Amino acid sequence: MRSLISIEDLTASQLTEMLDLAANFAEVQQREVPKVPALRGKTVVLAFFEDSTRTRISFDLAARRLSADVVNFSVGQSSATKGESLRDTIETISAMGVDAIVIRHASSGAPQQISQWTDSAVINAGDGWHQHPTQALLDAYTIRERLGTLAGKRIAFCGDVNHSRVARSGIQAFAALGANVVLVAPRTLLPASLEGWPVEVVESLDDVISELDVAYFLRIQKERNGQALFPSLREYRQRFGLTAQRAARLKPDALIMHPGPMNRGVEIDPEVIDDPRAVVLDQVAAGIPVRMAVLFSAIGPGQFDGQDRAA
Ligand code: NCD
């Protein structure tokens, strides 16, 4: 594998191999010096054209733990503010001889387009409503760690599916790994057509909550007009939020997930965040070994040798 633009770039067995490789890198994280020389001499550029906290830091740490050189590019401090086109920006970055470009962009399809303009590997860190493949992988990793497998598990995405690249990539990954995926949302937060989506749709969270193995809550995308699509945040919470009352109906070993950033008291009530079934911070932690695996697969030397130690 070189570039990773979409979950569809990976077969089911490649998905599993990626999670296995991530598990090896999780072991590296436990070491006193949590670092291997695997990507020494390689350069990774983090090109974030949209704001991010966890994804950017996570890719940055992942690349450093593989001993790559990391360059951070922020659109607000770049010549993009002088009107430079995306193509010229990317061609300029690649002319400096970088091995991988990790890109986040508000436009769906930007990473695909960029991959035509550069010989560097392109890793999609989230594009518009389209895909966020490393999020899907870290979510699958978290579920596998906790529940052993995704096969046969009932996983619900609840909330703003239409604006969500997390849901689009997660649905594909979870279904490929054998899960039964349910969407729980009002009609206004679902895409106009779900043709070809491997999902079941229910309109009421209360109808399914007690049957779920994973309840995955999506952020209301205020910046993408998500909030205009239902009457009020209060009503949204009442119908689709994880309140303490609903949490009490979840199975004792079910998982509560959210990609962050959370709107506390909207998707999930503050007291439920501390429920032992909530794995939101495990998801964040899984991001590092998973992104190490993705970067290694893209530009690494082939097989990972677990004996590697930082020099
Ligand atoms: C998500 C994103 O940016 O796509 N956050 C993340 O990467 N963890 C989800 C979101 O913004 O709702």
How is this structure best described in words?
This protein has two domains: 7-131 and 287-299, Aspartate/ornithine carbamoyltransferase (Rossmann fold, 3-Layer(aba) Sandwich); 133-283, Aspartate/ornithine carbamoyltransferase (Rossmann fold, 3-Layer(aba) Sandwich), CATH 3.40.50. Helix content is 37%, strand content 15%. The protein contains eleven helices and nine strands. The strands form two sheets. Strands 7-6-5-8-9 form a five-stranded parallel β-sheet. A four-stranded parallel β-sheet has the order 2-1-3-4. Helix 2 crosses helix 11 and helix 5 (133-147) crosses helix 11 (280-299). It is globular, with a radius of gyration of 19 Å. The model has no long low-confidence stretch (mean pLDDT 93). Bound molecules: N-carbamoyl-L-aspartate. N-carbamoyl-L-aspartate is lined by residues 54-55, 126, 132, 135, 165-166, 219, 259-260. Residues 54-55, 126, 132, 135, 165-166, 219, 259-260 line the site of N-carbamoyl-L-aspartate (NCD).
**Count of all domains:** 2
Cofactors, ions, other ligands: N-carbamoyl-L-aspartate
- Assign the CATH architecture of the largest domain: 3-Layer(aba) Sandwich
Helix content: 25-40%
Global mean pLDDT: 93
What's the CATH class label of the largest domain? Alpha Beta
Briefly note the structural class of the backbone.
alpha/beta
| CATH level-four homologous superfamily name of the largest domain | Aspartate/ornithine carbamoyltransferase
